[in-house]
Design goal:
The protein is α/β, with parallel strands linked by helices and 300 residues long. The chain contains 13 helices and 8 strands. The chain has a single domain, classed as Aldolase class I (TIM Barrel, Alpha-Beta Barrel), CATH 3.20.20. An 8-stranded parallel barrel has the order 1-2-3-4-5-6-7-8, surrounded by 5 helices. The protein is globular. It starts with a helix and ends with a helix. Bound molecules: 2-phosphoglycolic acid (PGA).
């Protein structure tokens, strides 16, 4: 554990030293909390692995997936399948274990009304769903969802006792011009702006660092890049909530996670699990990602 702490301290110091030009204004914030980061206790959070099926699978493949997945030992990894809306009721009927969560990929933050094509959280709860992805880059970029709407979605999901997976991440140009941390900072600041006490239990809110350049591209962030960004996200949670709270919140990495890169990413102490797209479509690959995550986190 001491070695691990030293590594984290080193990582934070290195991050501070490498602050890019665009980062200067928020550097003081990092310095205020850097000592706290170095004493985060790792390995106490239950790993979390989520499948994001996006617009894939039909009823037959969804059924066999959930049946097969339930035959496997998920080894204390909290597992979520975020399926297309039309498959969710059917999957809820196939689900035998309450610890296997079902998630939606989208919802509209109103109770009911004239919102053609949308689904409310009440409808999702009625279908047996208790988790929802918010802020995915495909929703932000392809469907024009802005930070303010995402903030409303996040607070509405919490108010309705859903577990939100709130995603943040920079695009390639932002990574290249050194504004990664600024983008994450802004997305988190606005995204969290409508959450007020009483805060949800820390195990009922999950964050995901998803660099857009790594999503669906086959290009994964290096384990160090992912660790650095995930640690940065947790630092912001210290500011919003508290040190003790942020220490308990799971922060995931997402972007071209597969069987081959899971272990190196999961070995990083800040990364609590994954949001998996392509590699979650086949049950054996997804199960391998769960197994590897469990094995790594047992050792942290
Ligand atoms: P990918 O998708 O694993 O296919 O890159 C990840 C995501 O979009 O959450």
């Amino acid at each position: 554990m001491n070695d691990l702490r030293k590594q984290i301290e080193q990582l934070v110091l290195q991050t501070l030293q490498e602050l890019r030009p665009g980062m200067q204004e928020i550097a003081p914030l990092m310095q205020v909390s850097q000592l706290q980061t170095s004493s985060f206790t790792y390995g106490k959070r239950v790993p979390f692995v989520a499948a994001n099926w996006k617009m894939n699978q039909l009823s037959a493949s969804a059924k066999s997936f959930i049946i097969e997945l339930q035959k496997l030992d998920r080894k204390n990894v909290q597992t979520v399948i975020c399926a297309p809306h039309i498959l969710l009721s059917q999957m809820a009927a196939e689900r035998q274990y309450a610890d296997l969560l079902l998630g939606a990929q989208n919802f509209y933050p109103e109770t009911a009304g004239a919102f053609t094509g949308e689904h409310s959280l009440q409808m999702l709860a009625d279908a047996g769903v208790n988790t929802v992805i918010i802020g995915h880059s495909e929703r932000r970029n392809l469907f024009g969802e802005q930070d303010e709407l995402l903030a409303k979605k996040l607070s509405t999901a919490i108010a309705n006792n859903f577990l939100p997976i709130f995603c943040v991440g920079e695009n390639l140009a932002e990574r290249k011009n050194g504004s990664t941390f600024r983008v994450l900072y802004n997305q988190l600041t606005t995204g969290l702006s409508q959450i007020r006490p009483p805060f949800p239990d820390p195990d009922k809110i999950v964050f995901a660092y998803e660099p857009i350049w790594a999503i669906g591209t086959g290009v994964t962030a290096t384990a160090d890049q992912a660790e650095e960004a995930v640690a940065f996200v947790r630092e912001r949670l210290v500011e919003k909530f508290s040190y003790a709270y942020a220490e308990k919140v799971r922060v995931l990495y997402g972007g071209s996670v597969n069987e081959k890169n899971t272990t190196s990413l999961a070995a990083k102490p800040s990364i609590d699990g994954f949001l998996v797209g392509n590699a979650s479509l086949g049950v054996s690959t997804f199960a391998s990602i769960i197994d590897q995550t469990a094995a790594c986190k047992r050792m942290v």
